[in-house]
Amino acid sequence: MALTDRQTRRQQWLETMLDAIEARLSGDIESGGSSVSMNGRSLQRYSLEELNTLHKTYSNELNRLEQQAAGKPKYSAVRVRF
Q1: Mind listing the pLDDT tens digit for each residue in 43-53?
Q2: Which domain covers residue 52, as residue numbers?
Q3: How many domains, the chain?
């Protein structure tokens, strides 16, 4: 099943965001610190936990869109025998 234009744009946005989050995660590991202050102004960054949560959420949504684009069903049947 093909994705709609909106879903395709969302998929591209998710890929961009995941790349940015992964770059930020590697940058935090290298540089450390999640806030900086200069001239009385401070800048707060996302914490590692927040970045990991966003990454997981966006990855799951991207996987769902990719499965939908591939024509796979949203849910798989579970067969049980008694």
Answers
A1: 677 888 888 99
A2: 5-29+41-69
A3: 1
